[in-house]
Amino acid sequence: MPYLILTVIILLVVIIALFLVHPNRRRDTRKFERRPFAHRGYYDNDHGIPENSLAAFRRARAHGYGVELDVQLTKDGEAVVFHDDDLKRMCGSDGHVYDYSLPRLRQFRLLRTSEQIPLFTDVLRELGGMPVICEIKVPAGQDYRPICEKAAALIDGYKGDICVESFDPRAVQWFRKNRPQLIRGQLTMNFYKEPGYSLPMRIAMSELLVNLIGRPDFVAYGVDTSETIGLKICRSFRPMMVAWTVCSQQQQDELMKMYDTVIFEGYPAEGK
């Protein structure tokens, strides 16, 4: 009897785990597969082409790359393309994007170049239909809904192929409910050694238990962290798999045995 009870418990745990990590049913994601996506544009911070700048996106387009970019909201509700939680590294200033109105934010320069923090609309216009992976940035303590609503309205008018992703499963869920036709992805990595997260959050994110919320079409995984059991279970359902951030052609070639596409930086990626 004890063995039977133990067997039943194990089976229940397995069934629950499968239910939690199950992604969306497989949809046609071929337009995003096999094409390298330039991380924050095809940038070169050391040579006057800052990340997430119009110059970086023009360069990506000229080389035929798709692009990955980050969208967040200003204080006055405008969608801009910027990655960091604060302005210090890229602009040399204190504060966050959401602390400033757009006119004030446009006074800053990226890495002491002439490049400004661009509007999402300007970036989409510059890309001219190139494939895009759009990360929805939800700063800690901020409401996820305004950025989802603003980004979605702008994405609606884009003539090219575009999908969305986020670390915040609530944002993925928002697109599941409000833009079900868009391909959506859960961004994650192995969070077990990351500071600043509660143990339940580390487990939920690392093992992809948050898939229950957003039911993503793809998983974008940080490949400089070790794979988890949850990721391997999720992969068995055959969602699109995206590797980030890849830093060499050799690494890309190796990862493409397990992933459908890569988000890369720092080298001229092959495989378009």
Plain-language structure description:
- The chain is α/β, with parallel strands linked by helices and 272 residues long.
- The protein is built from eleven helices and nine strands.
- Strands 1-2-4-5-6-7-8-9 form an eight-stranded parallel barrel, surrounded by four helices.
- Helix 2 (54-63) packs parallel to helix 5 (120-127) and helix 6 (144-155) packs across helix 7 (169-178).
- The model has no long low-confidence stretch (mean pLDDT 95).
Q: What attributes does this structure have?
A:
single chain; 272 residues; alpha/beta; TIM Barrel; 8-stranded parallel beta barrel; 11 helices; globular
Task: Write a brief caption for the model.
The chain is α/β, with parallel strands linked by helices. It is 35% helix and 17% strand.
Overall tally of domains? 1
Sheet with most strands: 8 strands, parallel, barrel
Order of helices and strands: HEHEEHHHEHEHEHHEHEHE
Helix content class: 25-40%
CATH architecture: Alpha-Beta Barrel
Uncertain segments: none
Estimate the strand proportion.
Answer: 15-25%
Could you give the distance between the termini? 58 Å
Our Rg estimate from Cα atoms comes to 19 Å
- Strand elements, count: 9
* Major beta sheet, strand line-up: 1-2-4-5-6-7-8-9
Structural class: alpha/beta
Mean pLDDT: 95
At the third CATH level, what is the topology name? TIM Barrel
Task: Write the CATH homologous superfamily.
Answer: Phosphatidylinositol (PI) phosphodiesterase
CATH class: Alpha Beta
| Structure annotation, total helices | 11
Query: What general outline do the C-alpha atoms trace?
Result: globular
